[in-house]
Amino acid sequence: MAVCRLNFMSNLGIQVSNLHKVFRKRKGFFKTKSSEVSALRDVSFEVAEGETYGLLGPNGSGKSTLIRILATLLLADRGEVRILGHLLPQEERQIRWKIGRVSVDAAFYKKLSARENLLYSAYLYGMDARVAERRAREILEQLGMEGRYTDPLEEMSRGMQQKIAITRALLTGPPLLLLDEPTTGLDPKSKRDVQSFLENLRREQGTTILLTSHDMAETERLCARIGFLAGGRLLAEGTARQLRERSGSVTLEDAFIHLAGESLADSVAELVEET
Ligand SMILES: Nc1ncnc2c1ncn2[C@@H]1O[C@H](COP(=O)(O)OP(=O)(O)O)[C@@H](O)[C@H]1O
Ligand SMILES: [Mg+2]
Question: The domain containing residue 135 runs over which residues?
């Protein structure tokens, strides 16, 4: 697939070229056999600073692997990644502070309250506790806080826990956000709260956002451009309109099926089922 090169005048938030990642699993009773999964195959794309880019793909298409590589948590086998101009993994220290990441299943100390969890993160970041608390409350207010900030995390709804995870990722005011399925499993209200918050963040702070999703309507609402990922390959990218027009489809769902082709019918069927 031809990579859509962004206008060179715009600064690049994310540059990914020919990224490849293979996982090897040992199998069998004596673990003598092994199998390989190509989680990412030759993936290339760019995200401009201040742009929201969405990666749409079914389970197992490589979304989390890609996010984890960009978040410096996993090493790629091949390819080049630059985040805000810094090369990974060589310059990862320079960018760790500039990235906020939210994963589908955020890890928390569930017995502690939202407040304690957030203050602990602030402590790890070396932030002043009072500044962190003020900022956390501001973000939570915008996100639509339900329940009490001092309640243990385990007593909060999944939607509320996700809002806490987003707050934690934003405590240091990072210019770049990596969001792995930030709204998967949320009730409709929490989903809308999170989506509106992300829209405001981009508009008011100019935050660069890469988000993954299997919700077609969500990516269409939030993302200037969308990439279709299936079987570890980036099959196509463009605005929702370009993707629909290119494939002569009325909906993004049809566009995905068309562009994914017969060989990927199984994974696409799964994607459509989930949305
Ligand atoms: N740590 C791992 N070890 C082995 N295989 C993995 C690992 N992480 C992901 N995979 C495999 O890589 C592929 C892509 O997974 P993932 O990136 O989690 O996809 P997605 O987030 O789109 O569901 C899947 O086939 C998955 O089983
Ligand atoms: Mg995933």
Answer: 108-173
- β-sheet with 233-238: strand ranges across: 99-102, 176-180, 208-213, 52-56, 225-230, 233-238
Query: Model's pTM, two decimal places?
Result: 0.89
From the alpha carbon of 181, which atom of ligand 1 is closest? 21
From the alpha carbon of 67, which atom of ligand 1 is closest? Answer: 17
Q: Quick one: average pLDDT of 216-222? A: 93
The mean per-residue pLDDT over the stretch 268-274 comes to: 49
Do the domain assignments include residue 6? no
The domain boundary, picked from 118, 141, 173, lies at 173
User: Ligand 1 centre and the CA of 95: distance in Å?
Assistant: 24
The reply to whether ligand 1 has any atom less than 6 angstroms from the CB of 61 is yes
Per-residue tokens: 207: 């935050």
- Per-residue pLDDT of 99-153, as tens digits, reads 999 987 777 888 899 899 999 999 988 899 999 999 999 999 988 877 778 888 8
Residue 172 near ligand 1, beta carbon < 6 Å = no
Cβ atoms of residues 25 and 34 within 8 Å = yes
Supply the pLDDT for residue 263: 44
Alpha helices in 86-187 (DSSP H): 92-96, 114-124, 129-143, 158-170
